[in-house]
Amino acid sequence: MNQTLTILLESAVIGALIGFGASAGVARMFHAPKVQGMGAFRTLGELNACENDPVAHFSFGFGFFFNAWASAVGTGALTSDVDHRIVPHWAASLAMARNRDLAETLHNPRRMAFFGAGVGVVLVSVLNTTAASIPHSLQKVAADVLGPASEWLINPVMPIVFWMAAVDAGRRTGGWGTVLGGLAHVVMGNAVPGIVLGIVVGKALDDLGRTRVTRVLVGAVVALFAVSAVLRGVDLQLLHQMKVDAPGWLEEFHRATGTEPTD
Amino acid sequence: MAHAEPGAADGAAAVPEGPGEAAAPAASGRGAKVPGEGSFWLSEWAFPVFVATLAAGIFAGTHLYYVYRTGTFSDVAVTAMLKAGMESGSYGAAAAFGAGFLFARVIEGPMVGILDIGGSLQTGVGIGVPAMLLAAGVTAPLEHFWLALPTGAAIGFAIGALILVIRRATVNSSRNTSTFGADVMMGAGNSAGRYLGPLVIIAAATASIPVGLGSTLGAALFYWWKKPLTGGAILGAMLFGLFFPLTGK
């Protein structure tokens, strides 16, 4: 009981924070690129798709509420849909329940932030506290079905989608995307960050050429890959797999910093 | 997920796709009740504040998961990486995965005008940063709620400020003419979510025959009703799993 109460209270605070921040960021997206927003491109597309209809917003969020609930029950992960879909859509639905003017509702960070905070308090509390009261058979189905599906989505489906987008966007983007994508899977365990960086670098080179901005960009990307590789012990693993004896100081360095290969 | 289907918009005003661009210019402040471009809510320095609140919530969510095994704001597969680290003590995979996404999105965010919270905050701050802290033996921010909040807020504020700095140096600099691939990323991000529905059905059919049939039926009904089919696939699988439980391993 005591534990449930703790979870409930902490969830309420967490929900208010994420609802406030996410909804304000989402409203700001409609003012991009003039104003820096946060959310996701798909969130923007989905919000536009049910524009001006509170019922459409609500039912769209509702579908993903079950998704998040099932996942929370089975695995304790509330899924990224909470911030991306449920909170923005439900906040939008509430915000425009009585007023359909987009500029005053969905595009208004102040109104969205407060409705979002309210949605967040209820949503996160419900998701976190009801999970324990769900029958065991449901938990098992949720874990066995959603687990593999979302694993496949993250790898290899998402990398392929981004990869094809990079390849279709031009030779330079495709080239950078392919090289950084492959390296990213080696170094970070997922190709998506590499492909995203490949698209940014490729497009920047297309549009700007070799300027100070693009050179700094490429330098930062190279530094990221090098640091990640060392942190994950990829260098050591590479030498092992090529049947080359790693120098003692390198092994010692990885042991001392706790960055030995993990898998 | 299924927003590219017409089904996502079962309301009256089904604006046909065309995300973003159509809405952005129409939005710029009008009406007296709306905060204008110059007000706090749309100002440049409000951005780190919003990132800080969201990051504080997400980081505290990971604290909840660390202590009570529920509450991360990441997807199942990503959370599983952190869980593997918590069980085995080696956080390398989760740390590199999270940090990689965080970095890529922080570079991308200011250039395209939208920070992707999935990669930067949910995966980066929610999984990557905690994994790095735990790998370094720092457990306090994850064990105590009132320490988790300021830690998350500080990280979020730093990320927000960094994005503004990058934005000044690139997009807002006078000679810039590039969108840094915003359109490409928009297309890919939009279509990636659509794949979850079919994947759920495949996973359900692999788990057991009744669950697979239920998932297929649910998805078909939702599609027929013009709702995102992912929701139907999940509900169908859960419903059939309740009556025909999966046998243990």
TrEMBL record, chain A:
<keyword id="KW-0812">Transmembrane</keyword>
<dbReference type="Pfam" id="PF14188">
    <property type="entry name" value="DUF4311"/>
</dbReference>
<keyword id="KW-0472">Membrane</keyword>
<protein>
    <submittedName>
        <fullName>Permease</fullName>
    </submittedName>
</protein>
<feature type="transmembrane region" description="Helical">
    <location>
        <begin position="12"/>
        <end position="30"/>
    </location>
</feature>
<keyword id="KW-1133">Transmembrane helix</keyword>
<feature type="transmembrane region" description="Helical">
    <location>
        <begin position="152"/>
        <end position="170"/>
    </location>
</feature>
<feature type="transmembrane region" description="Helical">
    <location>
        <begin position="112"/>
        <end position="132"/>
    </location>
</feature>
<feature type="transmembrane region" description="Helical">
    <location>
        <begin position="182"/>
        <end position="201"/>
    </location>
</feature>
<feature type="transmembrane region" description="Helical">
    <location>
        <begin position="213"/>
        <end position="234"/>
    </location>
</feature>
<dbReference type="InterPro" id="IPR020042">
    <property type="entry name" value="DUF4311"/>
</dbReference>
